[in-house]
């Protein structure tokens, strides 16, 4: 398809003269007309940027439908009643209406669970896999990085419901395969990393990330077994035995308040509290005030019904100097001590905690998607159940098993722009570039050439501006990240094709009759 350039097409001589590597990416988006920020954290999408969003939506739709998902469109507003039932109403990142009973849904676990509860009539309707693509809102206190962390963002969120854990994990793996399909189509290297479930909850999750030095996340990869995990889920052991003298301790409780958890670790390392969940699954990591925690265990009489678990980091030995135990009257038979447990933040060069053999490599990364297996975290409090035939013909009521799956469309575009740029501009993957090719000419195109170009069936813009030289037109096309520039000059019917894609640079003269075949071959690579 041939079309004209956007009406507002940047001719900013100042920005075109710069080394794009030295210009913050979020500034390039606005100066080149991809987006506009009416206020920090908010986004207006301009035609080039919105073209990219639509192409990315098409890719995601195709792979989600291929995974058996059905598209829905949920209300942006959500009831406080539901969020209170799941214990998430106090989240300080929710935009709450003045009525105190409604919020803008930053994510839709509560609403989709209530919807399924109201609609499902039989277990025979399972499995269910619903998805939507729409704007979400989060009261981000420090919006930054343009598209990477704002108050408004575009997201694909999906939710699955199954009869049991086995079926739910099959659905989870089906969606994971669909995600691989999406990211492979974008042709930008990515990693899938084991991750903590965080506030969303559940027992299993994976982050999908692009490696980049400016990323806010940290990812570790084992050189031997290939295990990939984020900082909160990486277990590590020292290369050589440590002679750790000084020891620090942090106190936690279990969620029922009946067990005191004492985490001992080297004073020169950082405790990674999420690693404690491997040993104490019901640990309460939100309550971190040591004085208040210890007060709960200060009464000798109530301590008769309480327990103590001491967890020793693997870098500690009997020669380490431990702080005094703060509760002297505890019956020693109520104390359990776990030793050689890695509970501090891993460092590059340490030994992988999974295979206990390979060395860990560390990289910064940008998270762009997340998948969760939730179990019945939401279906239990919201009573989303079905009647299932049991043994001897007796039916039983069962909570549905759930998963949720997010892809940040605006984050993907923001991250790829950060990663795929050089001194001349962006290098978008052809699959989501604002348009696939710029046809650059100093005059009108002949009818024969128009027919040839249209027969190629790709998204093209024609730059025939009379007062702008060919060189500047090429420079602008490169700055915008357009993968292919087709230059119709005075050597016609020989045409110069300038390819500038992800990992590929090529300039070639081709005849008009070869143009379609050559461009089609190149597009498969970029």
Summarize the structure.
This protein is α+β, with helices and mostly antiparallel strands. It is 22% helix and 31% strand.
- Count of domains: 3
CATH homologous superfamily descriptor of the largest domain: Bira Bifunctional Protein, Domain 2
Average pLDDT reading: 92
Instruction: Tell me the Rg in angstroms.
Output: 28 Å
Structural class: alpha+beta
CATH architecture of the largest domain: 2-Layer Sandwich
Portion in helices: 10-25%
Q: Are there runs of 5+ residues with pLDDT below 50, and where?
A: none
Q: What is the CATH first-level class name of the largest domain? A: Alpha Beta
- Count of separate DSSP helical elements: 11
CATH topology grouping of the largest domain = BirA Bifunctional Protein, domain 2
- Oligomeric description of these chains: single chain
Number of strands: 31
What share of residues are in beta strands?
A: 25-35%
Give the distance, in angstroms, between the N- and C-terminal Cα atoms.
19 Å
Descriptive labels:
alpha+beta, Rossmann fold, 22% helix, 31% strand
């Amino acid at each position: 398809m041939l079309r004209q350039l956007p009406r507002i097409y940047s001719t900013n001589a100042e920005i075109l003269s710069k080394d794009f590597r030295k210009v913050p990416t979020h500034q390039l988006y606005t100066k080149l007309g991809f987006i506009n920020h009416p206020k920090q954290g908010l986004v207006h999408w301009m035609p080039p940027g919105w073209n990219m969003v639509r192409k990315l939506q098409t890719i995601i739709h195709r792979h989600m439908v291929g995974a058996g998902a059905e598209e829905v469109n949920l209300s942006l507003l959500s009831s406080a009643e539901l969020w209170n039932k799941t214990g998430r109403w106090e989240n300080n990142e929710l935009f709450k209406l003045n009525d105190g009973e409604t919020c803008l849904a930053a994510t839709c676990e509560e609403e989709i669970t209530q919807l399924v509860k109201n609609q499902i009539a039989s277990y025979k309707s399972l499995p269910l896999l619903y998805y939507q693509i729409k704007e979400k809102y989060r009261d981000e206190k420090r919006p930054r990085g343009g598209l990477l962390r704002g108050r408004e963002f575009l997201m694909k969120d999906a939710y699955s419901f199954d009869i049991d854990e086995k079926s739910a994990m099959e659905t989870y793996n089906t969606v994971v395969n669909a995600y691989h399909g999406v990211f492979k189509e974008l042709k930008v290297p990515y990693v899938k990393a084991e991750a903590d479930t965080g506030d969303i909850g559940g027992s299993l999750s994976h982050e999908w990330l692009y490696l980049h030095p400016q990323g806010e996340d940290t990812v570790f990869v084992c050189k031997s077994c290939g295990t990939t995990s984020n900082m909160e889920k990486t277990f590590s052991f020292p290369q050589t035995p440590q002679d750790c003298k000084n020891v620090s301790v942090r106190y936690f409780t279990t969620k029922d308040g009946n067990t005191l958890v004492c985490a001992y670790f080297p004073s020169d390392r950082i405790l990674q509290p999420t690693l404690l969940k491997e040993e104490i699954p019901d640990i309460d990591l939100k309550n971190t005030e040591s004085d208040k925690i210890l007060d709960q265990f200060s009464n000798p009489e109530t301590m008769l019904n309480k327990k103590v678990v001491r967890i020793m980091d693997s870098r500690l030995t009997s020669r380490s100097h431990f702080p005094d135990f703060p509760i002297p009257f505890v019956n020693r038979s109520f104390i359990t001590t776990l030793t050689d447990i890695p509970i501090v933040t891993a460092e590059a060069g340490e030994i992988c905690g999974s295979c206990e053999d390979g060395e860990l490599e560390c990289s910064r990364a940008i998270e762009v998607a997340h998948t969760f297996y939730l179990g019945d975290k939401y279906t239990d409090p919201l009573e989303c159940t079905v009647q299932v035939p049991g043994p001897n013909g007796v039916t039983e009521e069962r909570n549905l098993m759930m998963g949720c799956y997010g892809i940040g469309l605006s984050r993907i575009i923001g991250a790829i722009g950060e990663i795929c740029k050089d001194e001349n501009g962006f290098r978008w993957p052809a699959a989501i570039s604002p348009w696939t090719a710029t046809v650059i000419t100093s005059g009108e195109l002949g009818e024969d050439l128009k027919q040839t170009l249209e027969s190629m069936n790709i998204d093209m813009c024609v730059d025939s501006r009379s007062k702008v030289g060919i060189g500047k037109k090429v420079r602008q096309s490169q700055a915008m990240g357009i993968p292919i520039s087709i230059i119709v000059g005075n050597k016609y019917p020989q045409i110069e094709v300038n390819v500038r894609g992800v990992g590929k640079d090529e300039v070639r003269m081709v005849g008009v009759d070869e143009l379609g075949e050559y461009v089609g071959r190149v597009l498969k690579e970029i």
